[in-house]
Amino acid sequence: MASSANSNPVPKLYRSVIEDVINEVRELFLDEGVDEQVLMELKTLWENKLMQSKAVEGFHTEEQAALQAAAQQQAQQSQQVTQQTQSQQVLLPQQQQVTNWQSTRPNVTSAPQQQVIVQDPKILQHMSATGMSAAATAATLALPTGVSPYQQLITSQGQILQVVRAANGAQYIIQPQQQMVLQQQVLPQMQPGGVQAPVIQQVLTPLQGGLPQQTGVIIQPQQIVLTGNKVQQNTQVMQMAGQAGQMQQVQQVQQVQQAQGGAAQGAPQQQQQPQAQGGAAPGAPQQQQAQQMTQPQPPMMLQVDGAGDTSSDEDEEEEEEEYDEDEDEDKDKDGGEDGQVEEEPLNSEDDVSDEEDQELFDTENVVVCQYDKIHRSKNKWKFHLKDGIMNLNGRDYVFSKAVGDAEW
Amino acid sequence: MAYQLYRNTTLGNSLQESLDELIQTQQITPQLALQVLLQFDKAINTALANRVRNRVNFKGSLNTYRFCDNVWTFVLNDVEFREVTDLVKVDKVKIVACDGKRASYTCVMILLFDQLLDTPHL
């Protein structure tokens, strides 16, 4: 990304506001007896939504992620070696992943393998560095068609996740950095002395020529859970409520470490071989596996509103329309009989246009501010505004002063 | 009480949505959510007043104007927003502006309290 001469003040401002608010309400939360965890969840939800809206450049979160990762790395250096190297592994691919994901965004619809390959070299490097099995040549992730990397999320521990939006609008989280695992093997990541309860790890399959799919990431359409854990991949419990749309052929065994065997909702996702979907119909086996894997998930619901709605409302509307049409016809007939031909509605020459409602726009450009002075001279208006937040063409801007002219 | 004006922004809406989610999962009470929003109002008002220092010019044609309850609402068409660094053009923009002189708001509050307490300020 090119560094601009003037840094955008918006991300910093938003970040400072978020920090202020969270810190101020911490007391309120404690007074109510609400756990700090909920406060963190609020913060995470808030930040995620901001990033999803794309109204703000998300770079500030990346910086924060880098900071957090650095801090995390230092904290973890007292821990075991493998964890250390793996956390380093976390750091380096992060920066790469940024570019990878962003650069591969347009490629999603075709050949998911491409994305996979991009990440391979990075991981391979680290893999060899850490001395782990080189069998993990496969991509860490494979995205199904129609799923596009959306945004990068940062968990409170600084892990970068990829939020992915499927064609049906459901959003998933992919946890990109994982330990490499042999095909069909689940290697215990943590040392035996670790406190961890069953560790679910990512199953990677090497790229096989001709296989259109890699084992990717389990994308739970409705719940994605990353349990918090002090060691290594500190993932945070997050739930994404999304539509239970069709899941494409992406499955990932997320590395979810269940702290103290605590309930990780929907976590146990040890997949056998999802590759079976290779060329098969993407929809059905996916859903089956998804449903098998995810326990407390509600049963997948097809959307029944909209086109599939019951016809009672439609009948009423039709009746009303018919009634109106009858009235109009009668009026026209009467007008004709009187000798006054009124073929056009009476309000056809009115100033006020009815078409404003019909305009389609993606974002309503809004400026929310305070006014210092509003001045008018004949039809020339002058605006003196201050302390405003603008959303123009989908992006956010702020100003401390704004001066404008307009003619009415 | 600070203006609740900024709740309908990206920042404010994302906060409200997050709070709604937490309420739905019953992790917080609506009362607590309201407190958070009030805190947000304070924080954003302060931040905008103190931490932002830039100036914007804009020019366009005025489609509609409304002044009600000391709030101006304009709809402008074909507007150019110009900052030192860049230029943004939009076909249509709605501007909602509350009174920048808090005095007016404060005066109203003072008068109300006067009535309650029978202590005439003026």
UniProtKB/TrEMBL annotation, chain B:
SUPFAM superfamilies: Transcription factor IIA (TFIIA), alpha-helical domain, Transcription factor IIA (TFIIA), beta-barrel domain. It comes from the Eukaryota. Residues 59-100 form the Transcription initiation factor IIA gamma subunit C-terminal domain. One of its GO terms (cellular component) is transcription factor TFIIA complex. GO terms for biological process: transcription initiation at RNA polymerase II promoter. Residues 3-48 form the Transcription initiation factor IIA gamma subunit N-terminal domain. InterPro entries: TFIIA_a-hlx (IPR009083), TFIIA_b-brl (IPR009088), TFIIA_gsu (IPR003194), TFIIA_gsu_C (IPR015871), TFIIA_gsu_N (IPR015872). Pfam families: TFIIA_gamma_C (PF02751), TFIIA_gamma_N (PF02268). It is found in: Nucleus. Keywords: Nucleus, Transcription, Transcription regulation. TFIIA is a component of the transcription machinery of RNA polymerase II and plays an important role in transcriptional activation. TFIIA in a complex with TBP mediates transcriptional activity. Belongs to the TFIIA subunit 2 family. TFIIA is a heterodimer of the large unprocessed subunit 1 and a small subunit gamma. It was originally believed to be a heterotrimer of an alpha, a beta and a gamma subunit. Interacts with NCOA6 general coactivator. TFIIA forms a complex with TBP. This is Transcription initiation factor IIA subunit 2. It comes from Esox lucius (Northern pike).
